[in-house]
What we know:
By secondary structure, this protein is mainly α.
Amino acid sequence: MGSGKSTVGELIAQRLGVPYRDTDADIVAAQGREISDIFIDQGEPYFRELEREAVAAAVAGHEGVLALGGGAVLDEKTRELLTGLPVAYLSMDVEEAVKRVGLGAARPLLAVNPRRQWRDLMEARRPLYTEVARVVVATDARTPEEVAQAVLDALELKNA
């Protein structure tokens, strides 16, 4: 959440000369409304099912860089789909998250006590992120360009 996965993903795709896709954007386009509205109207379980389906479709049909929503790894089947793929986990600390996204109302899982909620989410998710990731790249105090290059270097992928 706020790690820069969309911006960095687009940069990596450009550098590799491949298409870019974001499963959160896929869900928004298919549903015709924002993710926060889906959470409010139908709840998190409904959104997670949409997310699981979007990730499965993207992994099966997209040849390029794919950005996943922060909670996608909560689903065991999604984690299985990612096994063996060149997955990068973009990590950051809570202070960096506050600077980047303000941990505000647009983040439905952070509506009450955002710093603590963010820490709790990360504590629960970090082991899942590292389980599926081939590499972990810290984003703190780095530009998106620096992070993109670090991912390419860590995954040993060559620019186009």
